[in-house]
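Give me structure tokens for this 100-residue protein.
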Amino acid sequence: MTVKLIALYKRPEDEKAFLDHYENVHAPLARKVPGLEKLVVNRVTGSPMGEAEYFLIAEMHFPDRATFDAAMASEENRAAGKDLMSFAKGMVTILFAEDA
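Here you go.
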């Protein structure tokens, strides 16, 4: 059973600066989290209901709950979380999910 941390990002005022920070600072920190199997980053391009509420959706995949729990308690995850609050506070919603 895959366990995921899903981050939903609202559209930033400065998309270029946001993406630069995300790609060059935040994603490399996230990739250091122990137990991470893959990081999937999705650019939202639209919605059937008009303008999309979200700009970016990131998924961090872990193989099981024990690995996920250890990853969330790691120093590397704390560093990624601290960085997240430095550039996306008030713009991001974090969810935990498991494959159904």
